[in-house]
Specification:
With 151 residues, this protein is an alpha+beta fold. The chain contains 4 helices and 5 strands. It comes from Mucuna pruriens.
Length: 151
Amino acid sequence: MTRIFEPLLEHAIIYIDDILLFSRDMETHKALLNKFFDTANLYGLIDFIPHVDRYTSPLSRLLKKNPPPWGPEQTQAIQELKIAQSPRALKIPGEGKRILQTDASDFYWGVILMEELDNKKFYCGHASGQFKEAEKYYHTTFKKALVVKNG
């Protein structure tokens, strides 16, 4: 995720799948949001959120020349977007091949569950965490096995 949004790192904090954008003024923030949406579209990240246009359109209107003031519609869009991204909202259809992608470093682990249907991969859910103190000393092979178990 950090590599994808590297051009935005001066104005972003990225931790696993959470992205926080910040800027000094509204004009800079609008330009930053445009760059964020362009990058997310370029890498296909938008495809992982069902009906994303419904959630982002109130926010996209804020990027226009004469934007409406921030209101309840934008706040609701943010809340709905958070719900749409939650693993509970993304269900496994159950017909395709399930893929569990894992990653482990010295201190942290992460897994992504995907399903392949018609040669397309669909995001189903994810989990991540930090190894316990004793687990940090495990051999890489055992760490990877532990990640599969946690997934």
